Amino acid sequence: MKSLPKKLFVPLLAGASLRDRMIASIGALVGIGLAGAVCAALFPASMPWLIAPIGASAVLLFAVPASPLAQPWSIVGGNFLSAVFGVVVAQAVAEPALAAALAVSTAILMMSLLRCLHPPGGAAALSAVLGWQSFAGHATDFLVPVLLNSLILVGIGMLFHRFSGHSYPHRARPVDGKAVAQEPVGLLMDDIDGALADLGETFDISREDLALLLRRAETHAAARAAKAKIAAAGKKVAAAKRKGRPREKVGP
Fold first, then answer.
1. Residue of 160, 92, 163, 103 whose CA lies nearest to 130
2. Which of 10, 62, 172, 249 could anchor a disulfide with 24, C-beta 3.0 to 4.6 Å?
């Protein structure tokens, strides 16, 4: 039981570091700040200058820029298309609870089919239903901020990550100065696909990044095995020398 709090509060993101979290915090400050300032200057007072789901988009974009859920098409397509379907459902279904459920479920389906799955998209669809009474008849007052917020945030993210040390839009790439085999020694992409199918789970990492990670892991494993082999050989040589060394005479 003593280790339970530690297990609960240990970060679950592989590779996360304090430096990356600080960079993410600065990125969100710049991204949300500039997106809000631009939209506030462009929109009339009757239109929202920021939508709430864009905050969740900023978390993905700046904290986990390698995630498939944080790529440009995921952010722009996921937010805007979900908002559109949320508006359609809000117009067609009068019961709020049913409309909310249908909007989110439809958004998940459409984002999946169009390869732009983005968790804040579910919030954008839900926002369309919950805020329908305030902009009924003026759907563009909601859709335009969603689209422009997303586009501006992505643009800022692309510029910001040029200096953050992360690739964005993300591409799986080897580490500079560290050679790695073109294919995993014991694994092929078909093996990775088969393992993912066996587990039946969806992981927040692309198969290309997963393959690259495994190749790097095999490189480290090979280096460790080589060091262990050299160390074992050294011990054998030392043992052989001790056996062949003549005994020292004891006494006069």
1. 103
2. 62
Burial (CB count <10 Å: 0-12, 13-18, 19+), residue 187: middle
Torsional class of 29: left (φ above 0), alpha (ψ -120 to 50), beta (otherwise): alpha
Q: pLDDT value at position 184?
A: 47
Q: Classify each residue of 124-163 as buried b or exposed e, where b means 16 or more C-beta atoms within 10 Å of its C-beta.
A: bbbbbbbbbeebeeebebbbbbbbbbbbbbbebbeebbee
How many residues would you count in the chain?
Answer: 252
Identity at 138, one-letter amino acid code: H
CA 75 from chain center: how many Å? 12
Task: Please provide the DSSP assignment of 123-187 as one string.
Answer: HHHHHHHHTHHHHTT-THHHHHHHHHHHHHHHHHHHHHHHHHS--SS----PPTT----SS-SS-
Cα(19)–Cα(229) distance, integer angstroms: 36
Per-residue model confidence as pLDDT tens digits over 218-234: 777 777 878 888 888 88
111-140 confidence digits (pLDDT tens): 999 999 999 999 999 999 998 888 877 889
Single pTM value for the model: 0.75
